[in-house]
Amino acid sequence: MNNAVAGFSKLSKKEKINWIAKEYFSTPEEALNIIRNYWNSDEKLQQLHDEFIENTISNLYIPLGVAPNFLINGKYKTIPMAIEESSVVAAASKAAKFWSTRGGFKTTIIDTEKIGQVHFTYSGDVEKLQSFFQEIKPKFFFDTQSITKNMQQRGGGILDIQLKDKRSLLNNYFQLHATFETKDSMGANFINSCLEQFASTLKEEFQDSALFSDEESLKVIMSILSNYVPNCVVRAEVSCPIEDLTEKHIQNPQEFAERFVQAVQIAEVEPFRAVTHNKGIMNGVDAVVLATGNDFRAIEAGVHAYASKNGQYSSLSHAKIEDGIFTFWLEIPLALGTVGGLTSLHPLVKLCLEILQKPSARELMEITAVAGLAQNFAALRSLTTTGIQEGHMKMHLNNIINQFEATSEERHLIKSHFKKTAVSHSAVVEFIENLRK
């Protein structure tokens, strides 16, 4: 690309695609074919997808799978998972089946509080500001009545507003720190609308107040929700007598349980391990979050901040052996919604929520946490028994076969060969090359 493009957003979809094909590809028609091949044949459905974001040219598909046999609080669930990584859905399904005969998963909602902040600077007498805040605090609730009315009817709304002195971090820095309950909505738009009204009220009341001198100033910097929700937390756990852990790959359940607990303890104290450990949890969490139309970037950011809440990045999950009982659990912040946004627009998201039997936001928190715990259990079971690569590389075999566009006959021969042979990229490539000679 030699020059900037002017007015790109005003071009039609066809014009945008043609420009990209001509600007970046030596064979524009080939690029155009790839882009068009991923359009939905239903024009109305494609238009719906086009309007989710800006400058849409095509669709990037991610596989949608399901993991059955999840026994959660005594009820069976089939969990939809949208993810491109092989072995994740299989591992979750295997863990679900394992625990379905050992009492299943138990969950507890610890809290559902969400947070938003108005960030501002103030130069003046802090005692005056504190007195002023207490005086006008009821006005914040009054001025947002039109915004909070519907939410209050559903049992939600503004829980509290606090003035926080942050001058130890930045000169003259203060916050209005507000907490919210948003029920089945994730609540981003609701929270941000409330915060912007708080900011407006704060500025207007400050200007009208006789309490402050001309030398004292207050400036609002920004108003925005926080994706760090340490008080919107769900706990998921599994437990059983150690002897009940016995299965094909666990001949000595006591030894397995001890190794498993040690593996978790390593992730609790070693950040290099904790990051990969938690990534495994997020394989399950993100797949459910994406399948249900929620914001996995917000979840990721909040979860990893939570993993660092004690000053060092650490494991989200924990394990123990006590009185002959093996217990494995995690506590994770999940601000999720089942109404609004893509949940009411995307046909597959609506289908996924139907598969989950139309859960409330609290129920979706529980299901999502269970998916993360199941994924973590599956990974740690492999790591402490057969090793992670055996199962992963067998699942990865399909990707390698597809990369080389194997015929159905070649595919059969390759899979038969690697049933008893270790899978590696180089071994598969060598076998295919020999096969084609």
TrEMBL record:
GO MF term (any one): hydroxymethylglutaryl-CoA reductase (NADH) activity
- Give the protein's recorded name: 3-hydroxy-3-methylglutaryl coenzyme A reductase
What metabolic or biological pathway is this protein involved in?
Metabolic intermediate metabolism; (R)-mevalonate degradation; (S)-3-hydroxy-3-methylglutaryl-CoA from (R)-mevalonate: step 1/1
Which residue spans traverse the membrane? none
Enumerate the InterPro entries for this protein. Answer: HMG_CoA_Rdtase, HMG_CoA_Rdtase_bac-typ, HMG_CoA_Rdtase_cat_sf, HMG_CoA_Rdtase_CS, HMG_CoA_Rdtase_NAD(P)-bd_sf, HMG_CoA_Rdtase_sub-bd_dom_sf
Family the entry assigns:
Belongs to the HMG-CoA reductase family.
Q: Does the keyword Transport apply?
A: no
Q: Could you mention a single GO BP entry for this protein? A: coenzyme A metabolic process
Give the E.C. number(s): 1.1.1.88
Q: Which Pfam families match?
A: HMG-CoA_red
Catalyses which reaction(s): (R)-mevalonate + 2 NAD(+) + CoA = (3S)-3-hydroxy-3-methylglutaryl-CoA + 2 NADH + 2 H(+)
- Alphabetic keyword roster: NAD, Oxidoreductase
Q: Which organism is it from?
A: Flavobacterium oncorhynchi
